[in-house]
Design brief:
It contains ten helices and nine strands. The protein is of the alpha/beta class. It has two domains: about 210 residues, Alpha-Beta Complex (2-enoyl-CoA Hydratase, Chain A, domain 1), CATH 3.90.226; about 50 residues, Lyase 2-enoyl-coa Hydratase, Chain  A, domain 2 (Orthogonal Bundle), CATH 1.10.12. A six-stranded mixed sheet has the order 1-2-3-4-6-9, with helices on both faces. Strands 5-7-8 form a three-stranded mixed sheet. Helix 8 runs antiparallel to helix 9. It is globular and about 55 Å long.
C-alpha cells in the first residue's frame, strides 16, 4: 500500500493537512499535488471543518519540486514533479474565477481560511504553496528561498503577482533575482509571514489561533470575507465596495447575523449555522 503523501486529520473543527515525505523534506511530487487537492476538497465539503492548517512532517515544510522530477525534465524527459488535475472549484467564486484555475492558484477558491504553519524549509514550489495560503506563521527554524533562478528557471506560478503585493517590489525583486535564503525573522520583517514562534510552540500557537477562528467567527462570514479580499486584488475600489455592499445586505438576513448579535449581548459562545457559503 502506497504511503500517503498528504496526511489529513480533523479535530476541534480544524483540518490539518501535513505534507508527508519527511525524508525528502517534503519535496513536491505529482502525487502530493493530487492528494493536496483532494484533501482541500474534502475539507471544503465537510461541515465539521471551519479552518484548514497546512504544515510539513519532520524538519521541513516543503523543499520545492522533487529533484528526480527536475532531473528528468532537464534531460528532456517528462518529470513527475507536478500534476495537471482539475483544480478545486467551488461554484461560489464570482467574476474572476479563471484566476483561481491556474496550476497552483486553486487554494483561494476554497471558502475556508487556510493557514500555513511553516515548520522548516520552504523553497521553490514549497514557497509558492505557502503564499497561496491565506495566512502564514513560521517556526524560528524555518528558512525561505524562491530558488528558481539558481536552477536556470524563472519566478513561476504567480510569484511575480503574489510577492510584490505581500512584501513590496524591492523585496520581491531581491528574493526572486538573488534566490538567497532568508530566515524566518527576515521573512516576518518583510511581511512574508505574520509571526515567528519557537519551533516547539509553532503548531500549538497556530492551532490556538485556528480554534479562535473556528469558535468565534461565523463560517459563512469568513468564507465570503476571504472571497472578497482575494477578488478585490483584481478590482477597482468602486467594484470592491459594490461587492461588499451586496454581501452585507445579504448578511443582515442570515441566522449567523442574528446569532452574532445575540451571543454578544448574552455574553456566550456563538452557535453558528453550518450553511455553506
Amino acid at each position: 500500500m502506497q504511503n500517503k503523501e498528504v496526511l489529513y486529520e480533523v479535530s476541534d473543527r480544524i483540518a490539518t493537512l501535513t505534507l508527508n515525505r519527511p525524508d525528502k523534506l517534503n519535496a513536491w511530487t505529482g502525487q502530493m499535488e493530487v492528494e493536496y487537492r483532494e484533501a482541500l476538497a474534502e475539507a471544503e465539503e465537510s461541515d465539521e471543518v471551519r479552518v484548514i492548517i497546512l504544515t510539513g512532517a519532520g524538519k521541513g515544510f516543503c523543499a520545492g519540486a522533487d529533484m528526480a522530477g527536475l532531473q528528468s525534465q532537464a534531460k528532456g524527459r517528462n518529470g513527475s514533479n507536478g500534476s495537471r488535475r482539475e483544480a478545486v472549484q467551488p461554484e461560489h467564486v464570482n467574476g474572476v474565477s479563471d484566476n483561481y484555475k491556474q496550476h497552483y492558484s486553486f487554494p483561494p477558491a476554497v471558502s475556508k481560511p487556510i493557514i500555513a504553519a511553516i515548520n522548516g524549509a520552504a523553497a521553490g514550489l514549497g514557497l509558492v504553496n505557502a503564499l497561496y495560503c491565506d495566512m502564514r506563521f513560521a517556526s524560528d527554524k524555518a528558512k525561505f528561498t524562491t530558488a528558481f533562478v539558481r536552477r536556470g528557471l524563472i519566478a513561476e506560478h504567480g510569484l511575480s503577482w503574489l510577492l510584490p503585493r505581500l512584501i513590496g517590489m524591492h523585496n520581491a525583486m531581491d528574493l526572486t533575482l538573488s534566490a538567497r535564503v532568508i530566515t524566518a525573522q527576515e521573512a516576518c520583517d518583510m511581511g512574508l509571514v505574520g509571526k515567528v514562534f519557537p519551533a516547539d510552540e509553532l503548531m500549538g500557537a497556530v492551532r490556538d489561533y485556528a480554534k479562535e477562528l473556528a469558535t468565534f467567527s461565523s463560517p459563512r462570514s469568513m468564507g465570503i470575507t476571504k472571497r472578497l479580499l482575494w477578488d478585490a486584488q483584481f478590482q477597482t475600489l468602486g467594484e470592491a465596495i459594490d461587492a461588499a455592499n451586496k454581501e452585507m445586505a445579504l448578511s443582515l438576513s442570515t441566522d449567523d447575523f442574528r446569532e452574532g448579535v445575540a451571543s454578544f449581548i448574552e455574553k456566550r459562545t456563538p452557535e453558528w449555522s453550518t450553511a455553506q457559503v
